[in-house]
Amino acid sequence: MRSRHLFGRHTRADLPVAVAGEGPYLIDAEGRRYLDACGGAAVSCLGHGRNPVTEAAKDQLDRMAYAHTSFFTSEPAEELADRLIALAPQGIERVYFVSGGSEATEAAMKLARQYFLETSQPERRHIIARWQSYHGNTLGALSAGGNRWRRGQFEPLLSGAMHHIDACHYWRFAEEGEGPEEYGLRVANQLEDKILALGPETVAAFIAEPVVGATMGAVPAVPGYFQRIREICDRYGVLLILDEVMCGTGRTGTLFASEQEGIFPDMVCIAKGIGAGIQPLGAMLCSDRIFAAVEAGSGFFQHGHTYIGHPVATRAGLAVLDEFEKHDLLSNVREMGNRLMTALIGRFGNRSHVGDIRGRGLFLGLELVDNRMTKTPFDPSLNLHARIKKAAMAEGLMCYPMGGTVDGLRGDHILLAPPYTITEEHVGEIVDKLDRALDVAFEQVA
Ligand code: PLP
């Protein structure tokens, strides 16, 4: 169907019309089934169709759909805040609910600024982020993001208070003979260099995704990288914001991705999985130190949106956590993640044009290269990632292909982020269908 509500290339393409869902499958108006191997954009962690989360949301709609937070709080919002705080990294004591990922990162960066105003450090205004990262598409989030293609035409509108250091992507960027730990320290130390160059007394925060999603395709940092980042932030009094919008809420096998880094952030942003695509929900979680400074100072966070703490969305979030616990889904993420990784390496590990296979839990990526030896990406004009997406859809498989920016060159990768409920059979189906889709796409660009 030609869409009149989607802008851009979607409006020129004939899109299937999704009408139903069943477990990890979406079904279109013609009855074709698509195995959702990417959760849309790492969103649908519980799959599709009717489930206890949809039932909980319906029940909340009937009880009380909306109460503005300047007049009321609500039971679901309070309960979900308590649950998240109990599960969150050490030191996290407050939650600010929003409707999505960009709102969560915007809230974190604004709160970082306000924290330093409340603590009489008004000169702290700079935020440092990383190239090849993504923090959302609103102007503040885009300013922090390090995807040059996404920033491109909006540069004149972006904030001059945002600065970037290199990504941590060992396979792509390490120098000849450089070990992972040596590389990790070298790129983490760029944060210190940047803080010193800007003036330590002027830097408010550093923001990073623990496992980089959309822009690089499920790239975790090397061991020790985030520990060094934490040390540097502490040395200069800079707040550490972790953007777990894509990699958090269980996607990598632990509720918070940062649990696997052995560090505690000052703020952490989540979205996507916590609403499971059933409700638009995100959250910015912060430490007691930050909250206490605001409470003791001006008394309130100078921010807000119409739908913060939405009762139906937060009720859905509670039901998502219930599902995780009831079915021990994070164990399944780890187990199926290992199986999927093993199957991908088995099938594609020696395949020409598959340069790297990486990720954690059910958050995996394949990087596609023209030349495996030199890691040279495909010519961007070939649009390989779009060809793979099309071929995969024809096979009845949803995967999330992207053309990222690698050293100014476009590189193609595929992100896999299936629902946490998948079984061994689904793992086999993903790999078989992807194999056929890659055959089709590679043949087109040969
Ligand atoms: N941060 C990260 C790491 C993301 O991957 C995304 C979306 O993909 C966002 C922020 C923005 O989230 P949203 O699209 O819900 O605004």
From TrEMBL:
The keyword Transferase applies. One of its GO terms (cellular component) is cytosol. Its cofactor is pyridoxal 5'-phosphate. InterPro entries: Aminotrans_3, Aminotrans_3_PPA_site, PyrdxlP-dep_Trfase, PyrdxlP-dep_Trfase_major, PyrdxlP-dep_Trfase_small. Pfam families: Aminotran_3. This is Aspartate aminotransferase family protein. One of its GO terms (molecular function) is transaminase activity. NCBIfam families: PRK07483.1. Keywords: Aminotransferase, Pyridoxal phosphate, Transferase. Belongs to the class-III pyridoxal-phosphate-dependent aminotransferase family.
